[in-house]
């Protein structure tokens, strides 16, 4: 079944690539191309934490085929070029810059987007030492930590964060706050996107909507539940720890993402 779906999707994307990129492809089977979703955020902003661990992670878990996700960690940081290379000032201080670099490196090194999003959401549930939580979440989500650590401590992490800054500054109109969410490259109603991500996402599909969009909301999965199927099928020792900081807590803690 999965293999069939995969072959089917590859066929569609071949057709898709051959045509004008602004075209929406709807096949007889009702396959619709995914909406391009950009999430511009920074690692320590409370609303970014609640959005990513809650609305975004749950929607993606429910319908990864409807979302082509691009994460851009940088947010309200500033970059300066010095004789020593690029330096950053982050809204929530150096810890945030360090976290943003780890996220940037994970984005480069983790190819599976579900695994990547689980990793980022896991990291965002803890504000303490980014390297400690980065390692713990790598174990929990089954991804190799060493390449990410090496990248984040070195020039590679610096370059990746710099280019995330360039992407953030290239947003037009300029974002008003973080997280900033784009659908098909455009910044729309940010409050709606943050507080009703699923509803806004579904607006971007033409009729007939994907069947999943006929459901006005969806189940909220905790990371724990998302990992139950398991990235490697094993029970993880850190799960107890994770339960203490489930996305539900974040959701209740930061329900007010107002600008
Ligand atoms: C998702 O976006 C990337 C570029 O960001 C593109 O290369 C890829 O083809 C897109 N995938 C689909 C299924 O549209």
UniProtKB/TrEMBL annotation:
Protein family according to the UniProt entry: Belongs to the GILT family.
UniProt name for this protein: GILT-like protein
Alphabetized GO MF terms: oxidoreductase activity, acting on a sulfur group of donors, disulfide as acceptor
Keywords: Glycoprotein, Signal
Range of residues in the leader sequence: 1-22
Pfam families assigned to the protein according to its UniProt record, in alphabetical order: GILT
Gene source species: Schistocerca gregaria
Family annotation (InterPro entries): Interferon-induced_GILT, Thioredoxin-like_sf
């Amino acid at each position: 079944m999965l293999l069939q779906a995969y072959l089917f999707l590859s066929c569609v994307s071949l057709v898709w690539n051959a045509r004008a990129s602004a075209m929406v492809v709807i096949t007889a089977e009702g396959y619709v191309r995914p909406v391009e979703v950009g999430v511009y955020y920074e690692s320590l902003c409370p609303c970014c934490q609640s959005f990513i661990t809650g609305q975004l992670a749950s929607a993606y878990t429910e319908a990864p085929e409807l979302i082509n996700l691009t994460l851009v960690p940088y947010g309200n940081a500033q970059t300066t070029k010095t004789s020593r290379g690029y330096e950053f000032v982050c809204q929530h201080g150096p810890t945030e810059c360090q976290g943003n670099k780890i996220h940037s490196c994970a984005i480069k090194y983790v190819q599976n987007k579900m695994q990547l999003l689980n990793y980022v959401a896991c990291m965002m549930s803890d504000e303490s030492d980014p390297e400690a939580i980065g390692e713990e979440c790598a174990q929990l989500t089954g991804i190799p930590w060493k390449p990410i650590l090496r990248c984040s401590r070195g020039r590679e992490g610096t370059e990746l964060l710099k280019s995330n800054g360039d992407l953030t500054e290239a947003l037009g109109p300029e974002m008003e706050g973080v997280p900033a969410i784009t659908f098909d490259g455009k910044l729309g109603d940010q409050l709606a996107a943050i507080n009703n991500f699923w509803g806004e996402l579904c607006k971007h599909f033409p009729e007939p909507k994907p069947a999943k969009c006929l459901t006005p909301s969806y189940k909220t999965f905790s990371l724990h539940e998302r990992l139950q199927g398991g990235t490697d099928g094993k029970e993880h020792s850190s799960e107890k720890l994770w339960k203490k900081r489930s996305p539900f807590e974040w959701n209740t803690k930061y329900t007010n993402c107002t600008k």
